[in-house]
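Researcher: We plan to redesign the surface later, but first we want a full-length starting point. Tokens attached.
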């Protein structure tokens, strides 16, 4: 009986010691964290704070060892600054890059935007449109910047329906070339960044105009003798004539090649 009592007392004693040890360690850890926190605040204060004039003894006693509000704000801002290498920041950059929606620029003047919207839905009366076209004639030294006609040797072999379709496309292209005349005139009258933007607009318009000419050729290809279909290739020059100025020479070369 005595042994059992001693054993129970031993167990109770061990349990009490364990509890005391846990409490002691918790107290030590709390004290260490407090010291580390104060030390970090002092280091941040030394790093961020501007040198302060020496304060008198009374000020030191009044203020104690607390960090200044400016330093606290600096620490808070530093800790809240997003990490540029974080996953969230990376996705913020990638999202616009791979977005399927149209990329847009800054909003323009509302009145100009309304004009654009109206012209998308409808067109100007022919008289008004002609007035605008006549303000921007072709520059004298841009002889090739015209709506090319279909070479006579090709035109006379086309069906009437094909001629009608191409004539309608030429009419549309006339507005395209007038647009380029206006851009060229604007380029001549401005400098700096505006001239750069207008030059870019001209380059894009010229590229579109060439594609337009190539599409006209492709629409005529089925009407040509198969042995002359190569005349529609992009390598054939475009001048004021849709198939270039030397089409007779091109035809002769094709004919000779087919005889081989």
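Model: Full-length starting sequence:
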């Amino acid at each position: 009986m005595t042994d059992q009592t001693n054993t129970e007392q031993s167990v109770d004693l061990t349990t009490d010691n364990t509890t005391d040890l846990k409490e002691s360690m918790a107290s030590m850890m709390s004290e260490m964290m407090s010291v580390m926190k104060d030390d970090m605040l002092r280091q941040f204060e030394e790093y961020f704070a501007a040198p302060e004039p020496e304060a008198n003894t009374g000020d030191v006693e009044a203020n104690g060892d607390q960090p200044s509000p400016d330093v606290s704000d600096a620490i808070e801002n530093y800790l809240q600054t997003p990490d540029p290498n974080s996953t969230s920041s990376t996705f913020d950059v990638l999202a616009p890059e791979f977005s399927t929606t149209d990329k847009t620029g800054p909003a323009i003047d509302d009145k100009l935007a309304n004009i654009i919207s109206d012209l998308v839905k409808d067109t100007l009366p022919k008289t008004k449109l002609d007035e605008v076209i006549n303000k921007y004639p072709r520059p004298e030294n841009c002889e090739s910047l015209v709506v090319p006609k279909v070479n006579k040797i090709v035109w006379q072999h086309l069906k009437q329906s094909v001629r009608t379709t191409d004539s309608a496309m030429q009419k549309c292209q006339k507005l395209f070339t007038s647009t380029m005349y206006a851009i060229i005139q604007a380029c001549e009258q401005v400098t700096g960044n505006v001239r750069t933007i207008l030059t870019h607009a001209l380059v894009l318009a010229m590229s579109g105009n060439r594609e337009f000419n190539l599409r006209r050729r492709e629409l005529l290809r089925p009407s040509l003798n198969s042995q002359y279909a190569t005349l529609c290739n992009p390598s054939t020059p475009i001048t004021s004539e849709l198939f270039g100025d030397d089409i007779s020479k091109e035809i002769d070369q094709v004919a000779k090649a087919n005889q081989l």
